[in-house]
Design brief:
single chain, 8 strands, alpha/beta, 10 helices, 268 residues
Length: 268
């Protein structure tokens, strides 16, 4: 497995010093509302960084609706094309489709079956567009606070099967899995549908008190699923953000602890 961390463009040097293999950044880094010269500045900064940017998340802002009565797939498609092209040019091969603000059913819209249909249409379009640029789309189940439907890995597995496009896969995030009390055997059952992983930082002396996540159980489930790809540390619990500034030592601690858990399980 490769370990990365979700961070900003100005913190890549700290991530490199901490020993990560790659970084994952928000799609907003690709300045989708700005012209090509503005993106060229960002791309140059990424290319000169000491670690590769291999994944982006937060595919859509809430201004781009993919469910509800006001969906405009032409506008959404144009946005997808720009963002996925730029992600590819930046060197990434993964785009995380979480984006709860864009995909949640808006107030007054209660047709969940239609919402699933609309999300499938958007996901299929994203997969087709991503295929043009060599970027895999990975669907992220979000806890109910983040989205009012599509909250579990087992739902994500069924969704990937429903869309049935080779460029659409699934993400599992232990933070959301734990928040939804989802059984870990759903991660094992997802199997080859999994193409990306998010993990919260462990609550250890370097990061402070927090939730005692079942990292061993999660890694066992990934092993059962046959997953051996990228794992990004994402600070959803906010542990690293409490450290001012979160320097290389603090950033390194989650990676070291998670790598140690993985190495222990491999010896069993």
């Amino acid at each position: 497995m490769k370990f990365g961390i979700c961070t900003g463009i100005d913190d890549i040097h700290e991530a490199a010093e901490a020993g990560y293999d790659y970084v994952e950044m928000g799609a907003g880094t690709l300045v989708p509302a700005e012209d090509e010269p503005a993106f060229a500045v960002v791309k140059r900064k990424i290319k000169e960084a000491p670690l590769p940017v291999q994944a982006f998340n937060c595919f859509f802002s809430s201004g781009y609706r993919v469910t509800g009565p006001a969906v405009d797939l032409k506008v959404v498609g144009n946005y997808m094309d720009k963002v996925l092209r730029r992600a590819s040019e930046a060197g990434a091969s993964i785009m995380v489709f979480g984006s709860g603000g864009a995909r949640k059913m808006p107030e007054g819209f209660n047709d969940v079956n239609r919402a699933w249909e609309q999300l499938a249409e958007a996901a299929r379009l994203a997969a087709e567009t991503g295929a043009k640029y060599g970027v895999m789309i990975v669907m992220e189940p979000l806890f109910k606070k983040g989205c009012n439907f599509f909250n579990r890995v087992d739902q994500g597995a069924a969704f990937v099967d429903r869309v049935a496009h080779p460029n659409l896969k699934l993400l599992a995030d232990l933070f959301h899995v734990a928040e939804e009390n989802e059984p870990l055997n759903n991660i094992a059952a997802a199997g080859k549908r999994l193409a990306h992983i998010h993990l919260p930082p462990p609550a250890i002396p370097e990061t402070g008190e927090g939730t005692a996540y079942d990292f061993q159980g999660f890694f066992r489930a990934l092993k059962q699923a046959g997953y051996n790809g990228r794992v990004s540390v994402e600070d959803n619990p906010g542990l690293l953000r409490k450290i001012a500034p979160p320097g290389a030592r603090a950033l390194a601690a989650p990676k070291e602890r998670l790598a140690a858990v993985l190495a222990f399980l491999r010896k069993q």
